[in-house]
Recover the amino acids of this structure.
């Protein structure tokens, strides 16, 4: 009897997050779908002007999607080499002591609230970019990429490092015993074996970047135009929602359009997470860690 | 039994002590490893067999806070001199591990790997050597039609023979086997044993085993280790029939271990 209650209790706990997820999806659809009575899905996604408050309003989110894409791509260029590189350093080169200091520090970086990264971007990076590149404003796609890239380093580094740790020691030993040097062992055996784990880390880093709101809102400049350059103010999807939610009347077309952006965002991150899961499953199978 | 007329020392351990941190794992080991002979190392679990065999190709270099004293010689050269090339030592002294550990690559790539990392580029040379090594490891007939398949699809015994082939492909002089049959079934074990007997014509072999019948079947010389010490070393037949040390006798008659 008691056992039954326990089981029931923990099942409820386990399923509650599922319930919340379902709730979120439900709200997104319920509040987002009505916009498609006014604008077709195609015109919504591929429309090139976002003027939600004009009359008649225009709800084309292509500039926002492109801005998100641009910022994400730029951030990847920052976080992948630095994240994977530091994982390799921690794993391969540093002594146990260095590792025991370095890894927690990097993980601490991931705990820093994103608004603080925003401050850092506004106060340090943006002015620096503005003066060195002689731009009208330092708040632009480039700055956003830089700050977001730095933010995602811990995710990429820590998961990559775990992936390197999962590579059985026996692979490394076998390689060295065949007369391979450390570098060859790393590039030809360890990295390929950890490859899928590292890809997972990159995808998860990417989904963190795509979904990040506060920082981009602070440093990307906020102009909803098709981003023709890295160095102009832009407005990614998340910051659009955050910036405009307060001013849109509940139940208005604008309001529904913002939810629809959220829906698109949700689908993108969902796809990224599924990709990460599939890759890591394949990887565990490849190493014989799972049946 | 082999004649004793040609007895060339290929490897030699001289006053070898080894420490893992403060654990004194090997105590003053002195041992000759003769050319073209099979030397078996037996002893109860934890006595230092793996530690010793891994010293012969410097695999213990990888272990932090470990320390070695004494000399280990290969063809008269100390392998731990500061200017010896560890990569060269490992190429000349190949190792097959207890658990088959093929790379998650194709069968072909597993065997070609050692050549590639040692700078052999010629495709024909590599292909020929892969085939030759697979044949020597008695695996060719089973894999000739699927060289591009993943090595992880092979059975445990096949994987172990692949590891042997991989090792042979870099043309080592000495082969080290650390309990190569520990995770294999009797049929695979028999195959590996036959293989070892065949390989001794060309190579010098050291094999660690828990299995005394196996030591008896494959080896010319046997070393019995106990608690980090080398208790007795001699011709396999003599060691098993008239052991000099009481501890050896107890071990081979199954009184402990
Ligand atoms: N990496 C290590 N760090 C610390 N101590 C170790 C390490 N490897 C082995 N030892 C210790 O050294 C001793 C000898 O171990 P070793 O693995 O050489 O024994 P073994 O004879 O091969 O045993 P088995 O038959 O179980 O494989 C043991 O006491 C073991 O606990
Ligand atoms: Mg052992």
């Amino acid at each position: 009897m008691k056992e039954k209650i326990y089981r029931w209790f923990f099942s409820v706990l386990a399923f509650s997050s599922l319930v919340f997820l379902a709730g979120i999806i439900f709200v997104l659809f319920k509040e987002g779908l009505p916009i498609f009575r006014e604008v077709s899905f195609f015109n919504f996604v591929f429309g090139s002007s976002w003027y939600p408050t004009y009359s008649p309003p225009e709800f084309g989110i292509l500039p926002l999607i492109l801005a998100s894409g641009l910022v994400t791509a730029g951030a990847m260029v920052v976080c992948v080499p630095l994240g994977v590189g530091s994982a390799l350093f921690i794993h391969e080169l540093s002594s146990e002591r260095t590792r025991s200091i370095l890894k927690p520090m990097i993980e601490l970086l991931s705990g820093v609230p994103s608004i603080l990264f925003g401050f850092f971007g506004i106060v340090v990076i943006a002015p620096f970019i503005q003066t060195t590149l002689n731009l009208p404003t330092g708040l632009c796609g480039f700055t956003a990429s830089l700050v977001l890239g730095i933010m995602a380093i811990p995710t990429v580094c820590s998961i990559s490092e775990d992936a390197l740790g999962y590579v059985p020691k026996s692979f490394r030993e076998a390689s060295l015993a065949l007369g391979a040097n450390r570098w060859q062992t790393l590039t030809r055996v360890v990295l390929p074996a950890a490859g899928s784990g590292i890809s997972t880390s990159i995808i998860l880093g990417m989904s963190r970047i795509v979904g990040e709101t506060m920082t981009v809102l602070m440093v990307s400049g906020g102009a909803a135009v098709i981003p023709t350059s890295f160095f102009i103010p832009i407005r990614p999807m998340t910051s659009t929602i955050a910036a405009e939610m307060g001013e849109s009347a509940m139940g208005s077309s604008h309001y529904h359009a913002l939810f629809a952006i959220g829906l698109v965002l949700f689908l993108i991150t969902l796809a990224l997470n599924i990709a990460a899961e599939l890759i890591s499953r394949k990887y565990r199978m490849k190493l014989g860690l799972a049946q | 039994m082999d004649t004793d007329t040609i007895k060339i020392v290929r490897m030699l351990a001289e006053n070898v002590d080894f420490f893992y941190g403060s654990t004194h794992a090997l105590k003053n080991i002195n041992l000759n490893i003769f050319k073209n002979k099979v030397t078996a190392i037996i002893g109860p679990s934890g006595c230092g067999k793996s530690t010793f065999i891994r010293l012969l190709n410097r695999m213990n270099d990888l272990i932090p806070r470990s320390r070695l004293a004494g000399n280990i010689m290969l063809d008269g050269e100390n392998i731990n001199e500061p200017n010896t090339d560890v990569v060269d030592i490992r190429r000349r002294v190949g190792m097959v591990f207890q658990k088959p550990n093929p790379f998650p690559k194709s069968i072909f790539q597993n065997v070609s790997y050692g050549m590639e990392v040692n700078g052999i580029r010629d495709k024909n040379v590599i292909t020929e050597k892969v085939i030759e090594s697979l044949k020597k490891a008695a695996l060719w007939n089973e894999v000739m039609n699927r060289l591009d398949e993943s090595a992880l699809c092979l059975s445990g015994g096949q994987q172990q023979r692949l590891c042997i082939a991989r090792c042979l492909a870099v043309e080592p002089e000495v082969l080290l086997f650390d309990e190569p049959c520990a995770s294999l079934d009797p049929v695979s074990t028999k195959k590996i044993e036959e293989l070892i007997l065949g390989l001794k014509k060309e190579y010098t072999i050291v094999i660690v085993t828990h299995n005394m019948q196996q030591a008896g079947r494959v080896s010319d010389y046997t070393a019995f280790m106990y608690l980090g010490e080398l208790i007795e070393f001699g011709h396999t037949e003599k060691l098993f029939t008239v052991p000099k040390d009481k501890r050896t006798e107890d071990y081979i008659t199954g009184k402990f271990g």
